[in-house]
TrEMBL record:
It comes from Daucus carota subsp. sativus (Carrot). This is ADF-H domain-containing protein. One of its GO terms (biological process) is actin filament depolymerization. The keyword Chloroplast does not apply. Residues 5-139 form the ADF-H domain. One of its GO terms (molecular function) is actin binding.
Length: 139
């Protein structure tokens, strides 16, 4: 079903990989890319459970927009292990204006397809989605 605002459909694989991350913890992160020619959101990269935050950040191109989900694990002040699923809307200042508009207009509908997102981050440069940001938002 295409998004009325941007005409972007969501590939079934996006929802399946997100469910794998959320329920089975098969992945640490999933990076999604809008294929403009296909008018569809697709899975671009899957991060293995052993991959780190730095591996995740390295997957986001410096001059192109992406969506991503990241399973952030942390310890509470009481030393209880927890995790939060973050949705990251990556829209660097150097990306094409058309691309930023398409990602912005498709975001809400795409996010609704991924049931279980706990925290959303908008980021235009790496400092806006650093580990310190994840940590402060997770608690």
């Amino acid at each position: 079903m295409a998004n009325a605002a941007s005409g972007m459909a969501v590939h079934d694989d996006c929802k399946l990989r997100f469910l794998d991350l959320k329920t089975k913890r098969t992945f640490r992160f999933v990076v999604f890319k809008i294929e403009e020619k296909l008018k569809q959101v697709m899975v671009e990269k899957l991060g293995e459970p052993a991959e780190s935050y730095d591996d995740f950040a390295a997957c986001l191109p410096a001059d192109e927009c992406r969506y991503a989900v990241y399973d952030y694990e942390f310890l509470t002040p009481e030393n209880v292990p927890k995790s939060r699923i973050f949705f990251v809307a990556w829209s660097p200042d150097t990306a094409r204006v058309r691309s930023k508009m398409i990602y912005a207009s498709s975001k809400d509908r795409f996010k609704r397809e991924l049931d279980g997102i706990q925290i959303e981050l908008q980021a235009t440069d790496p400092t806006e989605m650093g580990l310190d940001v994840f940590k402060s938002r997770a608690n």
